[in-house]
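Message: I would value a second opinion on how I read folds in token form. Give me a protein, with the fold worked out from its sequence. Write it directly below this note and I will take it from there.
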Amino acid sequence: MLIESLLKKNFRSRQRLCIKKCESAWMKTRTTNAIFEVLLIMVAVLTTLAIHFPGFAAVKELSNAEKKQIVHAMYQDYKKSFPDVPDMEPQTAMQLMQAEQVVFVDDRGSTEREVSTLPGAITPQELLANVQQYRGKIVVSYCTISYRSAKLTRQLRQQGLNAYNLAGGLLAWVLEGGRVYDANGESRRIHVYGKRWNYPADGYQAVW
């Protein structure tokens, strides 16, 4: 009886220890899952803040991939205001540029253009003064993020030109590896219009 009693006591002791270990493991798993869920929520919140309140983001801490994601999201949001205007991705525009099959139209102010512009870009005034010269050519309009240039693109298409809006504008262009130029040649400065759009590619100085 004594042996049987000791065996039962030892079994109950091991059983309690096992239960405690299981409870501890479950609590750790629960805590880990909770932490993971909190991190996911934090990422979602920070991304939302960066998109709707871009000045919130610490630009220097963002990678080019993260900046591209934000710029793309901002452009897609703006695009809701001009769903009828066709656009062109920066990489496609670069390929056409290499083949000398595209004309860029910079729909920004002179102060912005002086900082940097796309290769060979002309102003809307220059294009509209010689519309016939550009018929049959591919025309790509842009501004900082291609919100302003969407209106110009619509106007050009109404005049019969094969015009497109550069998706994501100058910001997307440099984030995709495109180069910009000023009066002295290639530039590493880009006018971002304001703090809200302060997402230059790595190695570029933002100006506004």
Remarks:
- Residues 86 and 164 are 5 Å apart (CA to CA).
- The beta strands are 87-88, 102-106, 138-142, 162-166, 180-182, 185-187, 189-191, 205-207.
- DSSP finds seven helices and eight strands in the chain.
